[in-house]
């Protein structure tokens, strides 16, 4: 299958490198980027050159579209890919919450959306529990202040996270509200809501913690089938501290699962 990557930065480049090294049954066919010249330069020494195209051309050329663009461009990539009946892999739980109708588009055109969730472990358990009755899902995210810098919620509410000497809770609300206020930071909360009892019933706290050097997430689930808590500490990427190093790896794992003879996890 031919794979196209939309967005060629923190996530897109490692995915391209993995495809270059070899994923059975898949090949990199095209890249979509706002800055085409930069994308061509980034390919040098990373992967064999492929065409740099627009969203519509990407959908026409490729069987699988990997979306890793800024949230404002999510729909520009998603809609043509899904209308072309493609497999659409994204890490943007926030994008799916903001544009829920893309699921209907996928259904109408026999496409499939795969939300890669490597930055948050345990979603298999949450999905399984959701087949029964879940009473409560709570998530607490703690990040180094630099990872939250520029979040719309902080700007709109004049919340300063500069020169903190102790942890500061900067948000408490639903996963949906958090995904809107911190679109580059809490895709994991949006994914948790989609996997479980919905983004409006999933509660979220976000803390800026100057003592941390990793993005940490803890989820607590109370269900009729199990009670469990899960935590993960993600190493921030050097290029974009808001994105963990594990995020592109989750996309690579999702790509491998497309053609693997054995798929582990539901």
CATH class of the largest domain: Alpha Beta
Helix tally equals 12
Instruction: Give the fraction of residues assigned to helices.
Output: 25-40%
Q: Which structural class is indicated by helix and strand composition? A: alpha/beta
At the fourth level of CATH, the homologous superfamily of the largest domain is: NAD(P)-binding Rossmann-like Domain
Spans of 5+ residues with little confidence (pLDDT < 50)?
A: none
CATH topology of the largest domain: Rossmann fold
Total number of β-strand segments?
11
Instruction: Indicate the radius of gyration in whole angstroms.
Output: 18 Å
The separation of the N and C termini measures 22 Å
Q: What's the overall average pLDDT, rounded?
A: 92
The CATH architecture designation of the largest domain is: 3-Layer(aba) Sandwich
User: How many independent structural domains?
Assistant: 2
Largest sheet: 6 strands, parallel
**SSE series:** EHEHEHEHEHHEHEHHEHHEEEH
Strand composition percent: 15-25%
Q: Strands across the major sheet, in which order?
A: 3-2-1-4-5-6
3D shape = globular
Could you explain the architecture of this structure?
This protein is of the alpha/beta class and 266 residues long. The chain folds into 2 domains: 133 residues, Rossmann fold; 112 residues, Dihydrodipicolinate Reductase, domain 2, CATH 3.30.360. 36% of the residues lie in helices and 25% in strands. The chain is built from 12 helices and 11 strands. α1 links the parallel β1 and β2. The longest helix is centred in the C-terminal third of the chain and has 14 residues.
């Amino acid at each position: 299958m031919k794979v196209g990557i939309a967005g060629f930065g923190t996530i897109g480049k490692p995915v391209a490198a993995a495809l270059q090294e070899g994923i059975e049954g898949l090949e990199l066919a095209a890249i979509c980027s706002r800055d085409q010249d930069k994308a061509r330069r980034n390919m040098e020494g990373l992967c064999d050159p492929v065409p740099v195209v627009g969203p519509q051309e990407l959908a026409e050329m490729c069987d699988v579209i990997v979306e890793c663009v800024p949230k404002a461009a999510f729909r520009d990539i998603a809609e043509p890919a899904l209308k072309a009946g493609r497999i659409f892999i994204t890490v943007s739980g926030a994008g799916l919450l903001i544009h829920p109708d893309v699921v209907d588009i996928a259904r109408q055109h026999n496409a499939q959306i795969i939300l890669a969730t490597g930055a948050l472990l345990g979603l298999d358990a949450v999905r399984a529990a959701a087949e029964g009755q879940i009473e409560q899902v709570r998530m607490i995210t703690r990040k180094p202040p630099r990872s939250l810098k520029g979040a719309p919620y902080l700007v709109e509410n004049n919340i300063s996270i500069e020169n903190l000497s102790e942890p500061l809770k900067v948000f408490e609300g639903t996963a949906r509200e958090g995904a809107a206020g911190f679109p580059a930071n809490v895709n994991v909360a949006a994914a948790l809501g989609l996997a479980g009892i919905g983004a409006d019933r999933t509660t979220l706290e976000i803390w800026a913690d100057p003592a941390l050097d990793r993005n940490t997430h803890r989820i607590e689930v109370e269900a009729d089938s199990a009670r469990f808590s899960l935590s993960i500490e993600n190493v921030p990427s050097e290029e974009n501290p808001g994105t963990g190093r594990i995020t592109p790896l989750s996309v690579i794992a999702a790509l491998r699962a497309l053609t693997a003879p054995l798929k582990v996890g539901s």
